[in-house]
Amino acid sequence: MKRISIFFLFVISALSISCDDFLDKQPDDMLTIDAVFTTRLEVEKYLANVYSYLPDPSDPYANLTPVSDEGDFVWTSIGANSVNTGNWGPTSIPYDRYGHYYKGIRAASVYINSVEKCAECEGVTQGINLRTKAEARALRAYYYFLLLRQYGPIVLLPNIIPVDASISETTKPRNSYDECVKYIVDELDLAAKDLPTVTQNVIDYGRVDKRTTLAMKARILLYAASPMFNGNNQDYSDFKNPDGKPLITNTYDVNKWKLAADAAKAVIDVMPNGLYKKFDATGALDPFASYRDVFIDRWNADVIWSRPSTGISNWTVHAAPRQMRGWNGLGVTQQMIDAYHMANGKRIDEAGSGYVETGLSTADTKYTKALDWNMYLNREPRFYVSILYNHDTWVFTGASGTPIQLYATGASGKNGSHDHTETGYLLTKFVSPNSDVPNNRYTTQSWIYFRLAEMYLNYAEALNEYSPNSADIAKYVNLVRERAGIPALPTGLSQADMRERIRHERRIELAFEEHRLFDVRRWKTADNTQGGPMYGMNVSKGTSFTDTEFYQRAVFETRVFEKKHYFWPIPQSEIDRNKQMVQNPGW
Predict the structure, then answer these.
(1) CATH code assigned at 236
(2) 105 and 165 part of one domain
(3) Same-domain status, 132 and 252
(4) Rounded distance, CA 64 to CA 46, Å?
(5) DSSP letters of 130-195?
(6) Helix H segments across 226-309?
(7) 175, 249 in Cβ contact below 8 A?
(8) Which of 18, 71, 275, 572 is most buried, judged by most C-beta within 10 A?
(9) Quick one: DSSP state of residue 226?
(10) Do 355 and 361 meet the contact criterion of CB atoms below 8 Å apart?
């Protein structure tokens, strides 16, 4: 069925704009379902519609990085400003995707129930209906997961609710968290049976395959095993449906960690070639290019599933400094700067790290130059891939090699025209070296939803809780560190020490990929990290690169994080409509 692949690549982006009301149209405004699933072209369009509900985190206004302690996106219209100041609630919800994902779920259900009616589809490519039905099933499961991680326990709708449904059919209580997980995992297992292990044809890249379902399963089982959802969580002991049914268990089950470990290992086993790497002219590993190009080289060996059509050019221009005709606003917090290791693999506060907080450097190094602030010297390669700091160079096409002036009176500083970073840093991860912002030329890139390095870290985290003496724990963390160009972990770590090391490695390796805000929630550590003062450099000061006033740590925002913020609120309109629906605790 060749046309579905060709059509898919361009229709997904078009429908992502126009199809949100697709399922809300009246019957006389659209083809009937029976007519849609009679012709191959209409079936292709409908499948693209199911895919179109996938998020696009390359849109800075949709990306959740600034809701975490990783970043600060400067524009006032970004929803993070309301979240971070506590100025939100059930009637005003930033990043509210509740209705959006349920529309995607309904679209997938319609497709699952109807696609086998398309004799024309099957006549062109035998077995295609089973495959695309499995794709829709996996997408439906993924939309449920996206709801689950943001809103907590949700209402499962395995069957389409008819237009003439009774009140009892349309007002349903929430399923428990464990029920949601079981349903999603069962659906993914069912979908996997009818999918190819790996998408072979390049024009089909971006479509769900068996590896995708395995990765989805691995992530959701890791969440389900985590402290937030796996016992000893008294904060949610009263979180119950109207009939008294508990929605989050207070019983710890170590086997959940085993299920998560096994699921992650299943992904690893179907990707035996390992992490994507690049090498220099001498044949030595190039950790900078290896990490940078995971996000630049489309469909590389790290990629399990990604969105083929993105707004990455929009991301790039938002990230670029004003000196490069960019919008100067994707900022990074000092907390995130401090998280990156030194080149010797130690954290900056570890003995022997070599970290120096103050002073100007006097000589060029591999990644830095004379007059760079000492804070930025001898850091790991992932730091230099991801962060642009004062006096750093925009090393992308169209740049002049001029150091970027982020101090107050600098050309990209606070006192200049238009926007400025509030933290004194800009985010350069995901920016292609071939992007030419001054001349408005950009590369085509994908946004990665799942990649192999995450599976390594998922496996290590789960295994450390279930079988803390396993050699595989350090092995897979060290494979990530090796690709990053830093030494292996020290030996002899306790289970608790290893837990913290794995969490820290996730923070760096998966930074800005929308993991952090959900990781700290599932670990139940968000109270300690997501509220309070957020730091950057003192962007209100500085008249030159050598003006040390700029390099003083300064609070750019004091954030609000309360217990209720572990989940987004359910929209009040849904609470009002469905009397069986209980609101999330605290809202």
Answers:
(1) 1.25.40.390
(2) yes
(3) yes
(4) 28
(5) HHHHHHHHHHHHHHHHHHHHHHSS-----SPPPTT--HHHH--PPPPHHHHHHHHHHHHHHHHTTS
(6) 255-269, 287-294
(7) no
(8) 71
(9) S
(10) no
Distance CA 329, CA 585 (A): 34
Instruction: Give the pair of three-digit tokens for residue 194.
Output: 């009818």
Backbone torsions φ then ψ of 342, nearest 5 degrees: -80, 170
Task: State pLDDT tens for residues 184-240.
Answer: 999 999 999 999 999 888 888 999 999 999 999 999 999 999 999 999 788 999 999
Same-domain pairing of 221 and 339: no
The predicted model scores a pTM of 0.94
Residue 304: count other Cβ atoms within 10 Å of its Cβ. Answer: 22
Q: Which distant-in-sequence residues (6+ apart) come within 8 Å of 220 by Cβ?
A: 145, 148, 181, 184, 185
User: pLDDT band at residue 9, thresholds of 50, 70 and 90?
Assistant: very low
Residue 120 lies in a domain: yes
C-alpha separations of 284 from 151, 206, 276, 302, 487 in Å: 46, 31, 14, 19, 15
Residue 332 φ/ψ, nearest 5 degrees: -125, 140
pLDDT in tens, 293-349: 999 998 999 999 999 877 888 899 999 999 999 999 999 999 999 999 999 999 999
Question: 427 pairs with which residues across the strands?
Answer: 387
Q: What is the domain count for the chain? A: 2
Instruction: Select from 227, 256, 285 the last residue of a domain.
Output: 256
- Tokens encoding 171: 């007002």
Cα–Cα distance for residue pair 313/436, rounded to 1 Å: 10
Same domain, 158 and 81: no
The region that residue 345 occupies, defined by phi over 0 for left and psi between -120 and 50 for alpha, beta otherwise, is left
What is the rounded average pLDDT of the residues 69-95?
A: 96
Same domain, 202 and 88: no
Confidence of residue 440 (pLDDT cuts 50, 70, 90): confident
Nearest to 481 by CA among 335, 377, 381: 381
Dig out the tokens for 31 from the structure. Answer: 């083809």
Residue 177 burial (C-beta neighbours within 10 Å; 0-12, 13-18, 19+) = buried
Domain span at residue 103 reads 33-62+96-256
Return the bridge partners of 305, or none.
450
Which residue type is seen at 364? D
Q: Give the model confidence (pLDDT) of 87-143 as tens digits.
A: 999 999 999 999 999 999 999 999 999 999 999 998 888 889 999 999 999 999 999
Residue 22 placed within a domain: no
